[in-house]
């Protein structure tokens, strides 16, 4: 049991959603199962109800009991399952539930997860509340990553991520559904940014057994383009995470042949994006085949493939990229700029187009334009001036890229540029190569560091 003061700090930190303060209170001896005075339930249930995966993970790391029986017969883990947030459920399930939970409880969890998924979040919410009024729906991100629908009715809130919850539970309990079943779950919501899509993709990625190979790629010929798009996305992710897989050569061959026959533009674009993560002797030829495709999504990924090819770039490939620098679609032009920036012959025209993109009305592309400008080997005044102009952008990451690009060029405006970035709040900046470069510049010039939280902007 923790002391009362640290317990109070823990409760306050959980309610505030401050996971760092939660960890600090636990380090000071707070009881990880201390009840929240507002509900009488352990604070882990407070985190679960708030869909706060980081706080739930901190409590679990501090020794909270996810299997603790509650007055209504549930447990924090069952509440996390019912809540439908994959991120929260992953945090509360713990590291190895196969060792912690008896077989009967594992079977109970699996049956409940499957029931919640098959029933549907809205119907389950109506069953639990008895309410028949309108359901309030909103789309939310689950712990800042993929999206999920959240529903509110009768004072209860659930998220419709039970497909991913079931998939994660099966994975942790080493229950392996068929590949077909996993793909069916993924494509039920035909969006690769949905939690169920990523949950199925992750489960397939975890399978390094030989029997997983013939089933997933078989969907490359599925009549539904959504199924084919999922397989392409799965292979793209495998190319990133398992490039040394014994199946890599076979996968790249499949993607190359698939790109030659695919007729759906969205699927073909994803196939080309996947191919760019592999090596194949026909990669350049594949990119050239689709560089003039009528669908801009395909032309964009044709540029990606041409850029990814490790062969010496042919005159035909340079000509195709030069043509794509003048493409009607701004996204295609930006992708061609990325490829051209790494080619001595195309460096100057790519830089000229980047400057035009930076000056144009392409707010949604500004981050990519700034990043490509900053890293460009072009050292002409026009590029430096474009970077300086981007310091007025409302997006801090665009300003950070612009200042970084000026620092790389040792531009005399660098000092003012760093000040215009603004103080950096949040996690992750301690390992950011751009921040490290700006820090090195300020130390070398013996200047104060203006990006610390709370610092005044220049």
UniProtKB/TrEMBL annotation:
Residues 1-26 have a biased composition (Basic and acidic residues). Residues 1-34 are annotated as: Disordered. InterPro entries: Ankyrin_rpt-contain_sf, ARM-like, ARM-type_fold. SUPFAM superfamilies: Ankyrin repeat, ARM repeat. It comes from the Bacteria. Pfam families: HEAT_2. Gene3D superfamilies: Ankyrin repeat-containing domain (1.25.40.20), Leucine-rich Repeat Variant (1.25.10.10). This is Uncharacterized protein.
